[in-house]
Amino acid sequence: MTERIPWSEYLQKSIHYNSINSNKEPVRVMLSSVKNGVPMVQPIVFQSLLSTDQRVLIFTGATRNANLMSVVKSSNSTHVVAMEMPKTKETYIFTGRIYIVAAPALSYRFGTPPRRINIRSEMSAEEFWEDERIRVWQKISSEYRASFTWPEPGIPSVTEVGNGQGSWSVYNDTNTIKVPAVSSIDIGYKYKTLDAIKETSLHKSGSIVSSATSSPAMNAFGGKLSKNTNNSDMETIHNSALDNFCLLVFKVTDVDYTQRGMFPPNRIMFNSKNGNEWKQQNVNA
To answer: Please, which domain of life does this record's source organism belong to (predicted)?
Structure first.
């Protein structure tokens, strides 16, 4: 029998009443950690609770974001995420462990998928998490998806935004993902939308293979494809963005929940031992 996770019931109601994710707009929250005594904070995008394990929150980010990857890997055990619910004036502060689920081609850099999480599937952990990564990729907005073709955050800009000429390229940067046999495509911030190409199978790298069943030119880049951008180039850009897209799997061990929409405010602490055997206690706000 599945264990009841009391805080997840609160969170699901909060997501509903605050219309979180209802319009596919990215819901950005702050991920915090400490490295060598120095606090580090990076925005990540909330997606959902994991359907097979209500202790687990799914966020997304970019593997080419060096600062984010540093925050994720800066602590061996503890990370903190704070979520604000604007309509109901609730605050959730989650403490736990975060794992990276990157494209299979990048597993040598980011490790294997998390295994101490209930997936209730005949699939292997690797198959389950890659399917989940692809599912979320197809669900997110085309605008958010396009951001995975953009330059690495935090580094100096080379050209004006939107120029796309002579700017940073996902294919040429030695610090990011490589796509074989591609060296002439330079996109910078050129694309503002990106549709997911329907898959028929997965490359060994984990990238989607086009089924060529979508509309002409796929409308993949919001009508911005040039006459020189053929289907092969389009597929390469899409696959590179997909390889840059990762899940951030947060296994929660403690929750500090405060409801400030009432007076006096209500505050509950949810604590567990390694995410199991949850206990809750009302405390002063």
So the answer is: Eukaryota
